Request: fold
Amino acid sequence: MKHKIIVVGDIKYNVISDPLPADINIRRDGEYITKIENKIGGQGAIFSIVTSKLGAKTIFYGKLGKDKLGIELKKIMKKNKVGCKIELCDKTKTGGTICISWKNGERYFITDNSNNETLNTSDINTDEICNAHHFARRGIWFSPNMLKYGNLKLLKFAKKKKIETSIDIGWDPYWNTLEQEKIEKRKECVRKLFYETDILFCNDKEIKKIMNENLNDSINLLQNYNIKLIVMHMGKKGSMIISEQEEYKIPAPKIKTRINLTGSGDVYDAMFIISRLNGKSILESAEMASECAGKHIENITQLFSLQI
Reply:
């Protein structure tokens, strides 16, 4: 049986560098020679491709510019057997991200979210959600209309239909640039989503940032939202799953060479959801997800075709 997953999310074009030595400081004038690849990106797009490759019937809702790049990205989604409900819009252009990573695991992103900013609830056929096994909202920060109203509306609809829901917190690109009052309003919009969320994906930095507390206090505060599972990526420390009854700590996989740092969290999340839908326990699902993400980082297995 193929499980049906509905994803509403972001999609874009990525320019990704091979990991740089830790002592390379890009804020200084200079140049460094390394490999650069062009790939499809976006939390929603990568998650959709991986769940599809792992056997799900995945349907993705997103927005792209009606340009050569948008047309090419939509073709890649179809090539990976994702059900594409992507509008090619002539009122926007297809955006992208420059992804710079270092061998110590640090990363920096420079992003143009033009197409993702135009996503709205009117772009989604909610009837598709009614018979799904899972509803995932990824890339929650980028569309002003979705952030203010749409995200909550869709999650409430899915919960009312008794569909399992998940969100990925991700990093708000405005956390470092807006006035504090506006940042807090954006955070509150996302915290409201927690009441309608069964599975919350995040990393340790994101959860501290959105809850404005240290890690332990942030986790304690999240207990008030009745989230069934908090799935936290913790880099070299592995991952941690917090359920209503138990806490699970999964060590990071042993990685010899870090090649694909971008997208590893989306790969983990996709494998975790698929494993759970296939009846695996929380611990089994987390262990499989961690192993899968490790293989992605080392480029041992090509789970999906991201190349443009």
